[in-house]
Design a protein that fits this description.
By secondary structure, the chain is of the alpha/beta class. The protein contains 14 helices and 11 strands.
């Protein structure tokens, strides 16, 4: 049913279609000029009144697309320019013939760049030889797969845990149990979607029990979703020195994050691991193309122009050169900013500087 409107640009009442967009979705500009009335609004300010006569929404994580927002609206399409989609009530959308889509893998290279910089920064600060260490990667999807490759190129031993991927018959990795990974990893790096139900729910996956099974003096890294890690449990583990340190890019209750936890972690950033220009361009491209196919807008091959952006592009096949990784992106600068002004969490996200990612 949700595809019945495909092919309609001008609807029966001859009203030009209306698209409501988060104003921080990069590269949209005048893409829909002559096709639609495009309204740009701050993500948190997208209201039922604004969307009631909209045909499509292009959002990010700060807009909760649920019954409260969508009830009695004209919305037929929701595209989130993000990997995660826990801000979309998918059941409600499907029950009400609202097509929704995300941008899987769009910023996987950016997050991998973030993790590489994290590993090298920790190695330098704590005097740790990464080639003698094991990293446990939980979740081997778009992001995890790239992290696994980068870690191996850095000379690290890699353990992989991903029960859904294992059950799918994937033969690429020698999967291990979560307990084994926690007991044998010097670094535990989480790349899972946020889910609250089902056989593999990830809400508070990292909790007191999870941390108790980790090696003493290990490092915890979470750049997936804030509530995947129980922030109080992480704080407790840092306070009692169970963990050497932790790295958090995502937090519970963003943007009102736990200030004590921020001060305890070695690296704390404002949910920007995937915020490279390249990641944003990929996300916008995926959503525009999806919307085009849904409404038959003749933008199926649209590509954003990133030519004006310059930066250090790094080939991960040569990632053993530590300095070149840091030159491409130094995560410590983002951490220092947040720690100096945690009240500016959203400001730092909304005004993130240009970063080019590694190839």
């Amino acid at each position: 049913m949700q595809y019945l409107c495909k092919g309609l640009i001008i609807f029966l009442n001859y009203k030009i279609m209306k698209i409501v967009c988060d104003n921080k979705v990069r590269f949209l500009g005048n893409v829909f000029d002559g096709i639609a009335d495009t309204i740009f609004v701050q993500g948190r300010d997208i209201t039922p009144e604004i969307v009631k006569d909209a045909d499509a929404l292009i959002v990010r994580t700060r807009t909760n697309c649920n019954k409260d927002l969508l009830n009695n609206s004209a919305v037929k399409f929701i595209g989130t320019a993000t990997i995660g989609y826990d801000h979309i009530d998918t059941n409600y959308c499907e029950q009400n013939n609202i097509f929704w889509t995300n941008a899987p893998g769009c910023n996987s290279g950016s997050v991998c760049q973030y993790i590489a910089s994290v590993l090298i920064s920790i190695s330098t600060h704590y005097g740790i030889d990464l080639k003698s260490k094991t990293i446990g990667v939980i979740g081997a999807g778009h992001v995890g797969a790239k992290v696994i490759k980068a870690a191996k190129l850095l000379g690290m031993n890699v353990l992989v845990n991903d029960p859904p991927l294992l059950l799918s018959g994937n033969k690429e990795y020698d999967f291990c149990s979560l307990v084994y990974l926690l007991q044998h990893s010097d670094f535990v790096d989480i790349h899972v979607p946020y889910t609250v139900s089902g056989d593999f729910a990830t809400h508070h996956l990292c909790n007191d029990d999870f941390i108790s099974k980790m090696k003493d003096g290990a490092v915890l890294i979470n750049s997936s979703r804030g509530a995947v890690a129980d922030n109080q449990a992480v704080l407790k583990a840092l306070t009692n020195n169970k963990l050497l340190t932790a790295v958090l890019d995502v937090w519970e209750n963003e943007p009102d994050i736990n200030r004590e936890l921020l001060n305890r972690v070695f690296i704390g950033t404002p949910h920007i691991a995937g915020y490279s220009v390249d990641g944003k361009a990929n996300a916008t491209m995926q959503i525009v193309r999806s919307l085009s196919k849904f409404f038959n807008l003749d933008l199926d091959n649209w590509t954003p122009d990133t030519s004006e952006y310059q930066g250090c592009l790094l080939d991960y096949n040569n990632v053993a050169d530590y300095k070149s990784v840091i030159q491409s992106y130094n995560v410590l600068s983002d951490s220092q900013l947040l720690k100096s002004s945690p009240e500016k969490f959203e400001y730092f996200r909304e005004n993130y500087p240009t970063r080019r990612e590694c190839l």
